[in-house]
Amino acid sequence: MTKQEVYFRSEREAMFPTRSKPFMAMILPVFFCLTSLSLTEGAPACSTVAFESAQRPMLAYNFDFEATGAGFLTANSAGSRRQSITEGRPASWTAKYDSLTINQVGPGMPAAGMNTAGLVVTLMWNKEAVFGGPEDLPSVSELEFIQRLLDLSGSVEDALQHANDVRIDGLVPIHYFLFDWTGEAAVLTPGKSGLLVHQGVDLPVPALTNTPYPEALLHLGQSRGYGGTLPVPQNQSLGTQNSLDRFAIAANAARQSKGRTSTDEAFNLLNKLANSDTRWQMVFDPKGQKIWLRITGSSLEHLLDLSKLDFACQVPPLAIDLRQLSPEFKARNLSPIQPDTLGESLAEVLSSMRQTAHLGRAEIAGAIATGLIFSSSCTAK
């Protein structure tokens, strides 16, 4: 009996000078996988699914955003010193590992990424997430949390320990998927008393969309092969079922693959989980230290080999505009990100929020960009 069958059977039986809230409110809501602050019917969102083969564990991820594909591929260096933008007791730390991340907002604020120890972290919208936890812990924002895990953690288990060292002072409800080179996975959901963790036998399906994980599992339990009688959906539906459909499609793909898949098969699945707002598609090979990246609207598939990247710490950090990736792109094309370049990109993201989230203030993009770029410093590795 598989761990999915066991689970469902048991279920059936029983950084800046001003670290203020207003400032955070201007910058944090621009990253997540929707462009409104309430999950509207039919709204698109991100998807993650893992293939847990011990020989070649892989993770596939779609990032969706309605208005723009603006963002950067960013190299983050071991030895860099960071301090959170949050107020009160902002966390500070020195990175232990190099990482490569996808950043819509700017340096230190990733939506997804992988480090050189083979840890991958992705985010997805979850309207049920509530940020809480012990008030006496140092704090990070919801995006800084991802960077901190990648900076400090060599595995999922390591990341779970570091996750308990801080309090997420967040504004936008999201949850996280963690995966490492051994095929170990975990889902972290912010709650009133801290992080709710699903791993091991409590993570029978290595996937995550935009529904709370227990709710998605219970719904999947109604499907044939998971304890129920309903057919597993083959395609997404619109409306409130969309996230549940994507979860079921991802779950079924992971089961049928028996943990093993190729990059082509992973991208084919991401295409089934995609929608008109999908901007970036990523397949992570943490054991091989490789990331395959597709930008929606382009037929190019970019291979990013972390073992060949120069992660020398510097300020500004090395990055490249995702919309400027050419067929000839190589790691050497990463160059120090400039405030005006990031400012223009961030202004586009902020402008896209004017009507949907009522938070668009493109005129502040330059100041935010400068603050993000110079929010870290370099120390010896």
Structural class: alpha+beta
Number of domains: 1
If you consult CATH, what is the topology? Penicillin V Acylase, Chain A
SSE ordering? HHEEEEEEEEEHHEEEEEHHHEEEEEHHE
Question: How are the strands of the biggest sheet laid out side by side?
Answer: 13-12-11-8-7-6-3-18-19
- What is the correct CATH architecture? 4-Layer Sandwich
Rounded to the nearest angstrom, the radius of gyration is 19 Å
CATH superfamily: Penicillin V Acylase, Chain A
In DSSP terms (H or I, runs of 4 or more residues), the helix count works out at 9
**Percentage of β-strand residues:** 15-25%
Overall spatial form: globular
Average pLDDT: 85
The strand count comes to 20
Q: What is the CA-CA span between the terminal residues? A: 47 Å
Largest sheet: 9 strands, antiparallel
So what's the CATH class? Alpha Beta
Helix content: 10-25%
Contiguous uncertain segments of 5+ residues: 11-32, 34-44, 355-360
Structure description:
There is one protein chain. By secondary structure, this protein is of the alpha+beta class. It has one domain (3-378): Penicillin V Acylase, Chain A. Helix content is 25%, strand content 24%. It has 9 helices and 20 strands. A hairpin with a 4-residue loop joins strand 11 and strand 12 (185-191). Helix 3 crosses helix 4 (156-163) and helix 8 (339-351) packs across helix 9 (365-373). It starts with a helix and ends with a strand. The model is unreliable at 11-32, 34-44 and 355-360 (pLDDT under 50).
